[in-house]
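Example record for the data management plan.
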Amino acid sequence: MLRFFSPPNQLTFLRILLTPVFVGMYLSQDPTIRQLSLAVFVIAMLTDWYDGWVARRWGFVTRWGTFFDPFADKVFISSTLFAFVAVGLVPGWTVWAIVGRDVVITFLRSYSELKGRPFDTSRLAKSKTFFQFLAICYILVLDVARTMTSLENSWRDTVNSLLSRTIIDPLMIFAATFTLITGIAYIITNRTTLRKLYGLPD
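Corresponding structural encoding:
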């Protein structure tokens, strides 16, 4: 029980609590609150880095933590992407593709770990997470920047052009495609484990 309330798990739980806070602030009509949402986003991302570091540094790595941490990541990233959909920044179907893949893989991975047959994590899957993070940062920073009244008109036009659908749509289509490919690769890499779990023939 004490390890459940370990510092890394507390940080992970904090990230989940920050999710509705961030989304609510980002969707606010008040420019100042929207700008402050960026600070909440940064804090949430820092907890993602710091909880893993603390767990490894002080020996708090647990089975619960290995599930809880990526789950918190999925909740935060998915919520952020749906917030982008709500304000009309990104195509909804790309977000559903990304979230759908993550839900399926998270379920399979969690079930396999529960049965004592953990999945092998590929570098491709880690690259997917990093690319999603970069895409979210790109969209979020620029969208928040254009709410600043101090931004000169010339720069505002530049920011608006960088957030145009001619740029954002291909970016999200690539992110969705890459995410789906990593999901397929994940299943192929762990096909032996999946066969044993579900009693499928070779």
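Summary line stored alongside the record: The chain is about 80% helix and 0% strand.
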